[in-house]
Specification:
The protein is mainly alpha-helical and about 500 residues long. The chain is built from 24 helices and no strands. The longest helix has about 40 residues. The chain is globular, with a radius of gyration of 23 Å. The chain starts with 6 loop residues before the first helix and ends with a helix.
Length: about 500
């Protein structure tokens, strides 16, 4: 059957182009997304009332589709806040300081610890923790501050956030936009691709900085502590469409990060040191158990439960909530324990909506182009024809598209990188996911692999490794290195990693 491309299709295509150009100009894309939604709806329905209503309904549909993501962020943040209240977050990473014997292994330890913490709590909230507790030890062991900042950015802002394997926000957005494929498929692909990019980038950065690694000395730490911060986190406020600036702002300090002596003294004075020690062990063990449970079926372990789709996220969210309650009740008595638990949950939702709120109208626009979600936005009556705008556009122009999988892979990667130019990381995922769902079948490429490649481009660029106005500024500020120097140092290693990840993704899993 020949496809009929009408004004709504062209309006949708124009909206996509305008949003991409707006991102390239580093402007906020919420307003273009809202206006584009109304225009597309008007051209489809011919009703001004329906067009105006679609501004609300698009965000409502996006909220309904993505609320599970908001909830998992809120619960994980609530847990982290409860752990911070008793100092357990610091205790979880302090043992790693004892094995930093030289600058080389300090580089590796920084990367590994940052990666593990960022998988569970997202990287930006983890930055002050890692910098305050581990970076001083790494510098004293002989690691240059720039090398430490590179390791933290690659492992946290890059590897952990681009796969988002544990919390599952990014894979869920990509999978939903790609046509409702299983988020676990995108997550698995993204995890493997993030390892490729991360290992390549970490290796190249180590080669670039290894000659500057010195023998350990307390004078190195003293010199670093006297260095003014390379950038202030407050300067990024309002810089990105996806409110990553709010996350970075939440980690800002009006004074220098605490010294090791201050941290130790604070922990010794803490009235809850027993609970702090206990939950510093219980929390990572609990999440490690969940990870092993999720991996068991893939390792061929008989009888292991297969946590499909979003079930893994459900278990993680439930465990986070239970741990938060246990932490709170271990240090608060009576009515105060109930109030404190509720406050942690409220703070978690505030953080979640600051971090993800701007995604709703953006995702709402891209959901207009997907058949599964367009009906409610366009006001299509039950049983009526629901258009699949993006897919139909791709189908009508498929004769113009390259059939080479590698070219399609690099095209989606570049599109993802363009969407990340606004200093975000997640705002472009609805676009890369939708395009992957449309191009994958045409080019004969696995849709989950293509969506994961787009996710790599968007998050590694805007999530905090290649863009100075992203939350990378928090890494630079806390590490006391100039943010532009950090961007220049990361640029080629990260691009090389992304290049090899596309080739590996298409040739091996495509």
């Amino acid at each position: 059957m020949e496809l009929s491309i009408g004004p709504a299709h062209w309006a949708y295509l124009a909206g996509v182009c305008i949003i991409v150009v707006t991102m390239m100009c580093r402007a906020n894309v919420v307003v273009p997304a809202i206006l584009a939604t109304a225009v597309v709806t008007f051209f489809w329905s011919g009703s001004l009332i329906t067009a105006i209503s679609s501004i609300f309904s698009a965000s409502m549909v996006a909220a309904k589709e993505l609320f599970n993501i908001f909830l998992i962020i809120a619960l994980m943040t609530a847990l982290l806040n409860s752990l911070k209240g008793i100092g357990a977050d610091v205790r979880m990473v302090r043992p790693f300081r004892k094995i930093m014997t030289n600058g080389h292994n300090a580089y590796l330890i920084l990367a590994v610890v940052t990666y593990l913490i960022s998988l569970f709590f997202w990287p930006t909230p983890a930055i002050p923790l890692v910098v305050a507790v581990l970076l001083p030890a790494a510098i004293a062991a002989g690691l240059p501050p720039l090398a430490g900042a590179m390791a933290i950015a690659i492992a946290g802002q890059g590897m952990a956030l681009s796969s988002d394997y544990v919390i599952g926000v990014a894979p869920a957005i990509s999978a939903k936009a790609a046509g409702g494929i299983a988020p676990s498929l995108v997550a698995d692909q993204a995890l493997q691709l993030s390892w490729i990019v991360g290992v390549v980038a970490l290796t190249l950065c180590w080669f670039k900085t290894r000659k500057f690694i010195q023998p350990g000395s307390a004078a190195l730490l003293e010199r670093w502590e006297l260095t003014p911060a390379g950038a202030r986190v407050q300067h990024v406020e309002g810089a990105a469409s996806f409110d990553k600036a709010s996350i970075a702002q939440g980690t800002a300090h009006d004074h220098d990060l605490p010294t090791e002596a201050a941290i130790t003294a604070e922990l010794r004075r803490d009235d809850h040191s027993g609970a702090s020690r206990a939950f510093a062990v219980i929390t990572p063990v609990a999440f490690l158990a969940i990870i092993l449970l999720m991996m068991a079926p893939k390792l061929g372990i008989a009888g292991a439960p297969d946590l499909k789709g979003g079930q893994g996220a459900l278990v993680i969210g439930g465990v986070a909530a239970l741990l938060m309650i246990c932490v709170t009740f271990s240090v608060c008595k009576g009515r105060r324990a109930f109030e404190a638990s509720a406050e942690h949950v409220t703070d978690g939702f505030v953080f979640a909506f600051k971090a993800m709120g701007a995604v709703l109208p953006i995702a709402g626009f891209f959901f207009v182009g997907a058949k599964g979600t367009a009906g409610d936005i366009l006001g299509v009556a039950a049983g009526g024809h629901v258009p699949d705008l993006l897919f139909e556009l791709v189908q009508s122009g498929q004769h113009l598209l390259p059939q080479n999988g590698l070219l399609v892979g690099f095209g989606v990667l570049i599109m993802g990188m363009i969407t990340g130019i606004d200093g975000s990381g997640f705002a472009g995922l609805p676009l890369t996911g939708a395009v992957s769902g449309a191009l994958g079948p045409v080019a004969g490429v696995n849709v989950s692999t293509l969506a994961a490649i787009g996710q790599m481009g968007a998050v590694w660029t805007g999530g905090g490794t290649l863009i100075a106005w992203s939350s990378l500024i928090a890494v630079a500020g806390f590490s006391r290195v100039p943010v532009m120097e950090l961007v220049r140092a990361l640029f080629l290693p990260v691009l090389a990693g992304l290049f090899l990840a596309v080739i590996g993704g298409i040739l091996i899993w495509g």
